[in-house]
């Protein structure tokens, strides 16, 4: 089949299939986000136009935003489908590096197709080309290498035959998944080759479910069966494996209290008798207190990030870890008893032994969770300007079981992870706190809204994130994808101001009142007017009762008019939900927070030495 490189690539994308969570056959690559320029408009752009009925193409406003939308799409489909983003060479390509880093940190599949400079070099240096003084093979796209799980530059059409199976492998294997970058020189995109028809035969990709080694299972069972105070921690790998029900069954069989990580949130119903709460800095006092007393932690599908472990200060110094993970890289961390395998098939192999946890330990978990619930109730009922906790409470009360809530950076991850009360079953939350990317909220919501037409997506974000990347509001409004954006306006980067001042630092350059300006009365952004100018419905509200009405209005308008609806609410800049956990940040000797820093480091070192 004589095809250009670009046509062959598009034909291959269309032929790849996947299985949805409910077992349906769906496209592996259901959507392409594109901004065209001289590096991709004629080669790849022409090929996409010819097959546009089979492979929908949506135009973004920024390359970073559209690539983040692709990341949000992958998360919303439980990594069963992959978004594609293509750009021109130069700044269009490098704008996508942040999105690649988000996908890499969060173990989410993403396919990036940046244009690249001519391989023939006859026109060098071309517009937007970076010239390396010491290596002529280097282009701007080499910046993708450290943030890609797989990188290739296609310098000959026939290279696709070897590289495309590797692309599919990385994107669909739970142990390796992450961003893939195929740099496409614009002259090569237009070159032809006689490709074998077999390259374009439909392929249905299924999630690999590797079974664990029997010796690893035996070692884990030995530790588990002798534990007196075990804690089960469920991470994102449980979600992507579809192993939530299996993990619950395991916990119920043995009476083990359950905690969740940020990526594992909403797997367990808040009302489940074994649920102790989310773990870590953005988690709950209940789960953190139990973790400090646990003698064994069974961590399933988590990379044990510092926000989950409170910078490794939250656990007893002599605790034993058992990890279940498809990636041995994550499984072996911190001297754990590693069990490498898929959560859905591995958890039952850990279940057969007839042992149960002391009921007093389970009762302790229940008492701690009840105390945490009471604390959240207090925060939601507190008088004064609306707090993040109250905003989360209203969204939680109004949302249905198939709705989806999303946030990324600042103070809202702690409020959403710590305070949300899930119904269990289908995962309904995306908290991008692996890379903590300001601006993900609106772009990710656009991608999630495309992926979840049977539920309404709500994005929670601060005024800082809104100002950093809001252009995809117009993309979603133009394309007709509804979601609700709740913009909590607290006059700046309030959560960093909180960190700065809580450690004894002077208030500086975070809240607007502490930023340099030549004005006595500096301007304030009219967020509703701005959102309306981008094609959205928008309203500003004051007070929690007004917010409840405004949020309900936004939900109905978004669905009825098939466009985003934005609710802007002034929120208290100093009201936070505290989990009681420590987080390691560098505190200079002369600041007041140094004492707490040294105490936290001491707990951390006791734990590490105990390993």
From TrEMBL:
BP terms from Gene Ontology: inositol catabolic process; isoleucine biosynthetic process; L-valine biosynthetic process
Top enzyme class: transferase
InterPro entries per UniProt: DHS-like_NAD/FAD-binding_dom (IPR029035), Myo_inos_IolD (IPR030817), THDP-binding (IPR029061), Thiamin_PyroP_enz_cen_dom (IPR012000), Thiamin_PyroP_enz_TPP-bd_dom (IPR012001), TPP_enz (IPR045229), TPP_enzyme_TPP-bd (IPR011766)
Span of domain Thiamine pyrophosphate enzyme N-terminal TPP-binding: 40-128
Pfam families from the UniProt entry: TPP_enzyme_C (PF02775), TPP_enzyme_M (PF00205), TPP_enzyme_N (PF02776)
Positions of the Thiamine pyrophosphate enzyme TPP-binding domain: 428-569
Listed EC numbers: 2.2.1.6
Keyword Hydrolase on entry: yes
UniProt keywords, alphabetically: Amino-acid biosynthesis, Branched-chain amino acid biosynthesis, FAD, Flavoprotein, Hydrolase, Thiamine pyrophosphate
Gene3D superfamilies xref list: 3.40.50.970, TPP-binding domain
The family this protein is said to belong to: Belongs to the TPP enzyme family.
NCBIfam families named in the record: myo_inos_iolD (TIGR04377)
PANTHER family: 3D-(3,5_4)-TRIHYDROXYCYCLOHEXANE-1,2-DIONE HYDROLASE, THIAMINE PYROPHOSPHATE ENZYMES
Name of the molecule in the record: acetolactate synthase
